[in-house]
Amino acid sequence: MVSETWIQIIGLAAGVCTAVSLLPQLIKIIREKRAEQLSLFYLFTLLLGLGLWTAYGVLRSDLPIILTNIASAALNISVIILSVKYRKPQS
Amino acid sequence: MVSETWIQIIGLAAGVCTAVSLLPQLIKIIREKRAEQLSLFYLFTLLLGLGLWTAYGVLRSDLPIILTNIASAALNISVIILSVKYRKPQS
Protein backbone atom coordinates (compact mmCIF):
# COMPACT_ATOMS: atom_id res chain seq x y z
CA MET A 1 0.00 0.00 0.00
CA VAL A 2 1.45 3.35 -1.05
CA SER A 3 0.80 6.21 1.37
CA GLU A 4 -1.14 9.33 0.37
CA THR A 5 2.03 11.40 0.74
CA TRP A 6 3.87 9.22 -1.80
CA ILE A 7 0.96 9.36 -4.23
CA GLN A 8 1.05 13.17 -3.99
CA ILE A 9 4.83 13.18 -4.54
CA ILE A 10 4.53 10.93 -7.61
CA GLY A 11 1.71 13.13 -8.95
CA LEU A 12 3.77 16.27 -8.41
CA ALA A 13 6.86 14.68 -10.03
CA ALA A 14 4.70 13.61 -12.99
CA GLY A 15 3.24 17.09 -13.31
CA VAL A 16 6.62 18.80 -13.01
CA CYS A 17 8.02 16.56 -15.79
CA THR A 18 5.14 17.15 -18.20
CA ALA A 19 4.97 20.87 -17.34
CA VAL A 20 8.72 21.50 -17.55
CA SER A 21 9.09 19.29 -20.66
CA LEU A 22 8.05 22.13 -22.98
CA LEU A 23 10.81 24.40 -21.60
CA PRO A 24 13.66 22.91 -23.71
CA GLN A 25 11.40 23.18 -26.78
CA LEU A 26 10.75 26.84 -25.97
CA ILE A 27 14.50 27.51 -25.50
CA LYS A 28 15.25 25.71 -28.79
CA ILE A 29 12.76 27.91 -30.66
CA ILE A 30 14.16 31.10 -29.08
CA ARG A 31 17.72 30.06 -30.02
CA GLU A 32 17.04 28.85 -33.56
CA LYS A 33 14.24 31.29 -34.43
CA ARG A 34 12.61 28.53 -36.49
CA ALA A 35 9.45 26.63 -35.66
CA GLU A 36 7.63 25.72 -38.87
CA GLN A 37 8.16 22.00 -38.18
CA LEU A 38 5.98 22.25 -35.08
CA SER A 39 2.35 21.42 -35.73
CA LEU A 40 0.08 24.27 -34.56
CA PHE A 41 -2.82 21.79 -34.65
CA TYR A 42 -0.83 19.77 -32.08
CA LEU A 43 -0.17 22.79 -29.86
CA PHE A 44 -3.80 23.98 -29.88
CA THR A 45 -5.23 20.49 -29.22
CA LEU A 46 -2.76 20.18 -26.35
CA LEU A 47 -3.87 23.57 -24.98
CA LEU A 48 -7.52 22.49 -25.05
CA GLY A 49 -6.54 19.28 -23.26
CA LEU A 50 -4.56 21.14 -20.60
CA GLY A 51 -7.56 23.40 -19.96
CA LEU A 52 -9.82 20.38 -19.54
CA TRP A 53 -7.28 18.69 -17.22
CA THR A 54 -7.27 21.83 -15.07
CA ALA A 55 -11.08 21.70 -14.85
CA TYR A 56 -10.84 17.98 -13.98
CA GLY A 57 -8.32 18.76 -11.24
CA VAL A 58 -10.57 21.46 -9.81
CA LEU A 59 -13.57 19.10 -9.76
CA ARG A 60 -11.46 16.39 -8.09
CA SER A 61 -9.83 18.94 -5.72
CA ASP A 62 -6.54 17.47 -6.98
CA LEU A 63 -3.80 20.07 -6.45
CA PRO A 64 -0.97 18.38 -8.45
CA ILE A 65 -3.24 18.19 -11.51
CA ILE A 66 -4.37 21.82 -11.18
CA LEU A 67 -0.96 23.43 -10.61
CA THR A 68 1.01 21.47 -13.17
CA ASN A 69 -1.57 21.84 -15.93
CA ILE A 70 -1.69 25.61 -15.41
CA ALA A 71 2.14 25.70 -15.68
CA SER A 72 2.00 23.48 -18.80
CA ALA A 73 -0.60 25.76 -20.37
CA ALA A 74 1.54 28.87 -19.71
CA LEU A 75 4.54 27.24 -21.44
CA ASN A 76 2.32 25.93 -24.24
CA ILE A 77 0.96 29.43 -24.92
CA SER A 78 4.55 30.77 -25.04
CA VAL A 79 5.49 28.07 -27.57
CA ILE A 80 2.40 28.87 -29.67
CA ILE A 81 3.21 32.62 -29.71
CA LEU A 82 6.83 32.00 -30.77
CA SER A 83 5.83 29.31 -33.27
CA VAL A 84 3.54 31.77 -35.00
CA LYS A 85 6.19 34.52 -34.82
CA TYR A 86 8.98 32.35 -36.27
CA ARG A 87 6.82 30.52 -38.80
CA LYS A 88 8.46 30.96 -42.19
CA PRO A 89 7.96 28.96 -45.34
CA GLN A 90 10.57 26.20 -45.61
CA SER A 91 13.35 27.62 -47.82
CA MET B 1 -22.18 20.13 -7.67
CA VAL B 2 -20.90 18.24 -10.69
CA SER B 3 -21.82 14.53 -10.78
CA GLU B 4 -19.18 11.79 -10.81
CA THR B 5 -20.22 10.85 -14.36
CA TRP B 6 -19.53 14.39 -15.62
CA ILE B 7 -16.16 14.49 -13.86
CA GLN B 8 -15.25 11.21 -15.60
CA ILE B 9 -16.41 12.61 -18.96
CA ILE B 10 -14.35 15.81 -18.49
CA GLY B 11 -11.35 13.70 -17.47
CA LEU B 12 -11.73 11.46 -20.51
CA ALA B 13 -12.17 14.47 -22.84
CA ALA B 14 -9.04 16.05 -21.32
CA GLY B 15 -7.09 12.83 -21.74
CA VAL B 16 -8.29 12.30 -25.31
CA CYS B 17 -7.22 15.86 -26.22
CA THR B 18 -3.74 15.59 -24.70
CA ALA B 19 -3.27 12.02 -26.01
CA VAL B 20 -4.51 12.73 -29.54
CA SER B 21 -2.71 16.10 -29.69
CA LEU B 22 0.58 14.46 -30.72
CA LEU B 23 -1.10 12.78 -33.72
CA PRO B 24 -0.99 15.85 -36.04
CA GLN B 25 2.67 16.33 -35.07
CA LEU B 26 3.37 12.69 -35.96
CA ILE B 27 1.56 13.06 -39.31
CA LYS B 28 3.49 16.29 -40.03
CA ILE B 29 6.82 14.53 -39.41
CA ILE B 30 5.84 11.57 -41.64
CA ARG B 31 4.78 13.95 -44.43
CA GLU B 32 7.72 16.37 -44.25
CA LYS B 33 10.42 13.85 -43.23
CA ARG B 34 12.01 16.62 -41.13
CA ALA B 35 12.10 16.88 -37.36
CA GLU B 36 15.32 18.53 -36.28
CA GLN B 37 13.39 21.51 -34.86
CA LEU B 38 11.77 19.23 -32.27
CA SER B 39 13.64 19.12 -28.99
CA LEU B 40 14.50 15.52 -28.03
CA PHE B 41 15.07 16.74 -24.47
CA TYR B 42 11.42 17.88 -24.56
CA LEU B 43 10.16 14.54 -25.89
CA PHE B 44 12.11 12.45 -23.36
CA THR B 45 11.11 14.64 -20.38
CA LEU B 46 7.51 14.35 -21.56
CA LEU B 47 7.85 10.56 -21.79
CA LEU B 48 9.16 10.38 -18.22
CA GLY B 49 6.24 12.55 -17.11
CA LEU B 50 3.70 10.39 -18.92
CA GLY B 51 5.13 7.29 -17.23
CA LEU B 52 4.83 8.94 -13.81
CA TRP B 53 1.24 10.08 -14.59
CA THR B 54 0.37 6.47 -15.45
CA ALA B 55 1.80 5.34 -12.07
CA TYR B 56 -0.17 8.12 -10.37
CA GLY B 57 -3.36 6.98 -12.11
CA VAL B 58 -2.77 3.38 -11.05
CA LEU B 59 -2.23 4.43 -7.41
CA ARG B 60 -5.38 6.58 -7.51
CA SER B 61 -7.33 3.86 -9.43
CA ASP B 62 -8.13 6.65 -11.90
CA LEU B 63 -8.97 5.08 -15.26
CA PRO B 64 -9.01 8.26 -17.44
CA ILE B 65 -5.49 9.13 -16.24
CA ILE B 66 -4.18 5.59 -16.84
CA LEU B 67 -5.64 5.02 -20.32
CA THR B 68 -4.93 8.43 -21.78
CA ASN B 69 -1.35 8.58 -20.52
CA ILE B 70 -0.59 5.15 -21.99
CA ALA B 71 -2.00 6.35 -25.33
CA SER B 72 0.05 9.59 -25.06
CA ALA B 73 3.19 7.61 -24.31
CA ALA B 74 2.65 5.36 -27.37
CA LEU B 75 2.33 8.42 -29.64
CA ASN B 76 5.26 10.11 -27.90
CA ILE B 77 7.49 7.08 -28.53
CA SER B 78 6.46 7.09 -32.22
CA VAL B 79 7.37 10.80 -32.47
CA ILE B 80 10.74 10.13 -30.77
CA ILE B 81 11.57 7.26 -33.17
CA LEU B 82 10.71 9.35 -36.26
CA SER B 83 12.45 12.44 -34.86
CA VAL B 84 15.67 10.47 -34.50
CA LYS B 85 15.20 8.88 -37.94
CA TYR B 86 14.57 12.21 -39.72
CA ARG B 87 17.10 14.24 -37.75
CA LYS B 88 19.41 15.93 -40.23
CA PRO B 89 21.72 18.87 -39.70
CA GLN B 90 19.99 22.13 -40.68
CA SER B 91 21.13 22.86 -44.24
Q: What features would you describe in this structure?
A:
- Chains A, B: It is found in: Membrane.
- 2 copies of one chain form a homodimer.
- The mean pLDDT of chain A is 90.
- Chain A has 91 residues and is an all-alpha fold.
- Chain A has 4 helices and no strands.
- In chain A, helix 1 (4-20) runs parallel beside helix 4 and helix 3 (40-59) runs antiparallel to helix 4 (63-85).
- The longest helix of chain A has 23 residues, at 63-85.
- The A-B interface holds A 2, 6-7, 10-11, 13-25, 27-29, 32, 34-39, 41-43, 45-46, 48-53, 55-56, 59-60, 64, 90 and B 2, 6-7, 10-11, 13-25, 27-29, 32, 34-39, 41-43, 45-46, 48-53, 55-56, 59-60, 64, 90.
